[in-house]
Amino acid sequence: MIDSTIEKRRTVKPAEMNGQVIPDEMINHLLQLADWAPTHGRTEPWRFVVYGPDKIKQFAQEHANLYRDNTPQERFKQASFDNLQRVADGASHVVIAYMRRGSNPNIPEMEEIAATACAIQNLLLGATEKGISSFWSSGGMTLQPAMKTYLGLREEDKVLGLIYLGYSDQPAKDGKRTVPLSEKVKWMK
Ligand SMILES: Cc1cc2nc3c(=O)[nH]c(=O)nc-3n(C[C@H](O)[C@H](O)[C@H](O)COP(=O)(O)O)c2cc1C
């Protein structure tokens, strides 16, 4: 039932994941769900770069190196570098999700970003449904120009996040929302 899948989806950090490998076929299935997101103008701007179990450690190291090589010395923190090296430990796959800006000038950038976020949410909900834990991270170098260069993206493209996927032995934490829905909704009656 989609209601309970939506309510059950929780952010689970890779540190809580157990190293169990997700079959690539399952990742492909989740990406197919992502591909059903809505778009304005059928632009389908979502793009994914997938690092599986044989590449995830290399990605983590390269992510840490990106941080080291693009951070002014006075802001560099060894603990952050170490954390980036280790952050994927426990995860099975990392999916980098980005928006590839289309050429139709009538479609605002905001709508392309929104469509890509919808695709990511499809992926997260599909994962929840299959008992797969997920973490949407915009930390580290995710939003920095150096990440785009690393991925070979153009300036107008936008990285939305790193999606860490894996299994966890721990029960998902209770969800919480801090702003009451009544404050987010204005009913015109
Ligand atoms: C665009 C986006 C970026 C996020 N980036 C981070 C992040 O960098 N670090 C983090 O701990 N959580 C990140 N999150 C996850 C949120 O912290 C999480 O969704 C929020 O705490 C609500 O918890 P829930 O997902 O379990 O409902 C991100 C979520 C979104 C939608």
Topology record:
Blueprint: H1 2-8, H2 24-34, E1 46-51, H3 56-69, H4 78-86, E2 93-99, H5 109-129, E3 133-137, H6 145-151, E4 158-166, H7 181-184
Antiparallel strand pairs: 1-2, 2-4, 3-4
Helix pairs in contact: 2-5, 3-4
Bound molecules: flavin mononucleotide (FMN).
Flavin mononucleotide (FMN) binds at residues 10-11, 136-139, 161, 175.
Tell me what the structure shows:
- This protein is of the alpha+beta class.
- It has a single domain (10-184), classed as 3-Layer(aba) Sandwich (NADH Oxidase), CATH 3.40.109.10.
- 39% of the residues lie in helices and 14% in strands.
- The protein contains seven helices and four strands; from the N terminus they run ααβααβαβαβα.
- It has helices spanning 2-8, 24-34, 56-69, 78-86, 109-129, 145-151, 181-184, and strands spanning 46-51, 93-99, 133-137, 158-166.
- Strands 1-2-4-3 form a four-stranded antiparallel sheet, with helices on both faces.
- α2 packs across α5 and α3 runs antiparallel to α4.
- The longest helix has 21 residues, at 109-129.
- The chain is globular.
- Flavin mononucleotide (FMN) is lined by residues 10-11, 136-139, 161, 175.
- Residues 10-11, 136-139, 161, 175 line the site of flavin mononucleotide.
